[in-house]
């Protein structure tokens, strides 16, 4: 089916599918281990789908602002790859899923001491934050923001101060992961743990709507070229690496199930956001703050499954 007729059909059916998915929000709840995230509306659900000509189909609470949380890790990984190359990044983080929770310490001690299994778990993303070029943490954060603003096509994109502070003041486990990385020389002598964590908390707190996420995902769907400006923002190889991690580790330890049920590269965050894409066709942003027991938006996954099954979007 052409994008145009598919999007026409989507525009017609989306409100009905969205309300059906909204009904499962009562089976989940917003994350509260970062206290500020606990205030999000539990029954909210919104989605934006954008195609390569900039046509947008949207439904539900897509005006809701939320922080990217782990969705940001896809783009800090890409920026680190652009700064350090594949070798520089894969010296510090591995390429394998863990099967454990995103903040687990378990495998850090078991295999290749200290080296995080992949860049999308917390330990791996903290290591990636240390690889972003910049002399000071503020400079690293500015470079991350500049890159995200370009991808989202919004110069006003910034981080949410309240969420940043809320995470920074309660992140005992992330602190322990970071000190563990330092002890194992994954973070170097020059890397001040608190400074690297500051970069990490700030990029997790970058505030967006579904439209920003869909716009950023569209660049990935088009292998690094922004179809609306024609500019190449990311080398194709780095998009390939990022999308592969999205398939194998993007939905935490539910990535296998998501690959079977939905079949698209995706990355979720504990704020309830999901970024996904249909290769060569659409960028998609979803928000649904109520999470399932794996930490993914319960209604967001439900909705994406309905769409993927109906339109036969699975890559596999
Ligand atoms: O570090 C944390 O716990 C949050 N800033 C992000 C966690 C998240 O979204 C899930 N991570 N893979």
Automatic annotation (TrEMBL):
The residues forming the signal peptide are none
Q: What are the recorded GO MF terms, alphabetically?
A: glutaminase activity
Its recorded reaction(s) are: L-glutamine + H2O = L-glutamate + NH4(+)
> Record's InterPro entries?
Beta-lactam/transpept-like, Glutaminase
EC number(s) given by UniProt: 3.5.1.2
Entry's Gene Ontology BP terms = glutamate biosynthetic process; L-glutamine catabolic process
Domain of life the protein comes from: Bacteria
Q: How does this protein assemble?
A: Homotetramer.
Q: What is this protein called?
A: Glutaminase
């Amino acid at each position: 089916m052409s994008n145009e007729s598919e999007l026409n059909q989507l525009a017609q059916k989306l409100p009905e599918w969205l309300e059906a998915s909204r009904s499962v929000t009562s089976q989940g709840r917003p994350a509260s281990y970062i206290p500020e995230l606990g205030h999000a509306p539990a029954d909210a659900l919104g989605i934006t789908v954008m195609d390569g000509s900039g046509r947008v189909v949207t439904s539900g609470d897509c005006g809701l602002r939320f922080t990217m949380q782990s969705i940001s890790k896809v783009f800090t990984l890409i920026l680190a790859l652009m700064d350090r190359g594949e070798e520089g990044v894969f010296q510090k983080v591995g390429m394998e899923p863990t099967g454990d929770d995103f903040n687990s310490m378990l495998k850090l001690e078991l295999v290749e001491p200290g080296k995080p299994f992949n860049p999308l778990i917390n330990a791996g993303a903290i290591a990636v934050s240390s690889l972003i070029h910049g002399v000071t943490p503020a400079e690293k954060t500015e470079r991350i923001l500049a890159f995200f603003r370009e991808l989202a096509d919004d110069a006003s994109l910034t981080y949410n101060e309240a969420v940043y502070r809320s995470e920074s003041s309660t992140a005992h486990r992330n602190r322990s992961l970071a000190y563990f990385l330092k002890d194992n020389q994954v973070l170097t002598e020059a890397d001040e743990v608190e400074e690297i964590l500051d970069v990490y908390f700030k990029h997790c707190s970058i505030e967006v709507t579904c439209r920003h996420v869909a716009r950023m995902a569209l660049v990935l769907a088009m292998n690094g070229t922004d179809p609306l400006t024609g500019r190449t923002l990311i080398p194709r190889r780095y998009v390939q690496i990022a999308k592969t991690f999205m398939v194998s580790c993007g939905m935490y330890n539910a990535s296998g199930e998501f690959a079977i049920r939905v079949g698209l590269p995706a990355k979720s965050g504990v704020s309830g956001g999901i970024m996904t894409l249909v290769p060569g066709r659409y960028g998609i942003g979803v928000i649904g703050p109520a999470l399932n027991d794996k930490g993914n938006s319960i209604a967001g996954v439900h909705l994406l499954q309905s769409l993927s099954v109906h339109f036969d979007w699975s890559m596999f």
